[in-house]
Amino acid sequence: MKGVHNHVESNEDVENELYELFLEARDSYLSEVVRKLVRLDYFIDLFLSSHYYIDCEHAKCRNAHRRNLTLIRQLFTDSFYLVEPLLVKSSVSQVELNALVCKHLTSAVFSPMKASYSLGCSFSDRQIEQLACISETYQIFNTMEGGDIRDALRSLFSCQIGFRLQVYHVRRAVVLFDALLDCNMISRNWQNVLDKGHFLVSPQGGQWIKKNSLSSSLNKAKASSAAEFENIRKAVYEMKKEELSESW
After folding, report:
1. Which residue blocks in the chain are alpha helix, DSSP H?
2. What's the rounded mean pLDDT across residues 167-180?
3. Residues sharing a CB contact under 8 Å with residue 118, sequence separation 6 or more, in sequence order
4. How far apart are CA 200 and CA 213, in angstroms?
5. Which among 178, 246, 165 has a CA at the least distance from the CA of 208?
6. In whole numbers, what is the pLDDT of the chain averaged over residues?
7. How far apart are CA 163 and CA 12, in angstroms?
8. Residue 1: which pLDDT band, with cuts at 50, 70 and 90?
9. Alpha carbon distance 47, 110 (integer Å)
10. Which one, of 203, 205, 213, lies nearest residue 143 by Cα?
């Protein structure tokens, strides 16, 4: 925010402050969510809390600021699917933001943040430990610095809203999911779920990995004779074998 507060005198002043807030939220999103893999819902709460107060006692200014914070929250939750294309652009104009706000205020709500996703699985602590071992052995997933891969996998397979996990190697990741599917440990629509929930992000640029990329990577992995892919499958089959032996 500006170092010197300018009192609100018109609607234009309110829109100008909203534009400044959005640009700051956009920069923070790229830094915290994309680069550091902070959960989106945590990012929103922390950003709004850090901008809650303004150095002004005028009711008009405080009301305008509160209104703009509410819009920022709504844009990054209810209308995140509208906002996301602007987050990856090199620059965003105030005209673009005004059009986005207008669309947000007049469109029916469709919120990926509030959608319910499921991979159809419920892994035990032992299975999470095995999946963590597979990930570490074959360098499949990358957590934030100091992050626990086990906690990350629990969040991933429970489809925790706002969660992101960086992938070291997309083909290794899709082989893991495909092997879990072969063993009936996850649902068939795993590619759709990972795409719609934006759960996996690429190591280059931090963009979420879309379904067509997941599908293409899986086809290439299946056509490959790389031993690492076969070893990942064998490790998952051992998980399933152990599960079956325990059920008898």
Report:
1. 11-29, 40-49, 59-75, 80-87, 94-106, 125-138, 149-157, 170-182, 190-196, 211-222, 227-247
2. 95
3. 159, 187, 193
4. 11
5. 165
6. 86
7. 36
8. very low
9. 23
10. 203
Q: What is the DSSP string of 156-215?
A: HHTT-TT--EEES-HHHHHHHHHHHHHTTSS-TTHHHHHHHTT-EE-TTTTPBPPHHHHH
pLDDT value of residue 86: 86
Query: What is the Cβ-side half-sphere exposure of residue 200, based on CA atoms within 13 angstroms?
Result: 25
Can you read off the two tokens belonging to residue 169? Answer: 């190697």
What does each C-alpha distance from 53 to 10, 13, 75, 117 come to in angstroms?
20, 17, 20, 35
Percent share of the chain, pLDDT over 70: 91
Please name which of 61, 81, 73 lies closest in space to residue 16, comparing C-alpha atoms: 61
Q: What are phi and psi of 175, to 5 degrees?
A: -65, -40
